[in-house]
Specification:
By secondary structure, this protein is of the alpha/beta class. The protein is 45% helix and 17% strand. The chain has 2 domains: 165 residues, Bordetella uptake gene, domain 1 (D-Maltodextrin-Binding Protein, domain 2, 3-Layer(aba) Sandwich), CATH 3.40.190.150; 98 residues, Periplasmic binding protein-like II (D-Maltodextrin-Binding Protein, domain 2, 3-Layer(aba) Sandwich).
Length: 322
Amino acid sequence: MRALVSSFAFAAATCVAVATHAQSYPVKPVRFVVPFASGDGPDLVARLVGDRLGRAWGQQVLVENRTGAGGTIGAAFVAKAPADGYTHLICNIASNAIAHSVYTKLPYDILNDFAMVSRMALTANVVVVHPSMPIRSIAQYVAMAKANPGKLTYGTGGVGTSPHLSMELFRLKTGINILLVPYKGAAPAAVDLVGGQIPSMMANLPSILSLILAGKARPLAVTSEKRAAPLPDVPTMIESGIPGYVVTPWYGVCAPAATPAPVLDKLNADIVRTLQAADVRQRLADLVIEPAPTSREEFAAFVRSEVERWEKVVKDAGIPRQ
């Protein structure tokens, strides 16, 4: 009986300690690991939200870019990090959904190695061409691709990224044969597009918007359900004649799976509050990013549905596993 009482006392003390830790959290700098390059969509959101959280907490939020392999290098790093609430992943459609079906030996389990904190935002991808190309619509792009099978190339920020899979879905729905030129990030792909080394590109809209507005890249269509506010004349893929085509890249915060629930709850509440602030919403709108916070449970269900969706696309497109 004494042993049983001691066990209950220990458990109670442990719960109190965890709750106290959550109330005082954070007591040191917090790290957001972005598995993509600086300037890409996940990085932009991480720096904006991290800055606001740091001010509210009185602790620095460090944004660390660990790039490569479609976001899986950074994700693997966080999956194995201490579950103490101080290292988090800016999880996203690539590393935490598409990667499940693209990589043969993924160094983490998407559904079991992470605790979902909150989705943060949604955005769109966009098909762009070099301004010298005689293409001004998706219909013309498809016509050129069909007239020159296997010769029209497009760049992306890497294999397994949402732009890559967005183009594969586009290829499935139109029956075109185009050639992927993968880059290590959206920025070098955009440089080659502007320089004329590649004729077309599928990119996260936030990462290439400035080039579009400067006239250095011509947009053909966005992958979102609605048109993007800064580009009111650019149609959606559905409006361009591709029925049912909607892709909304997403960004969120994930933690190592064993992170204490009270810490995850506090993180969720603080992130949701930050994304509801008027100045944050306006800044995201300027970047063509829509705030879309969720509860922890809603985010977990959303990720599971995304894994299933992209598994089917990868299978139907015949994409070989890396």
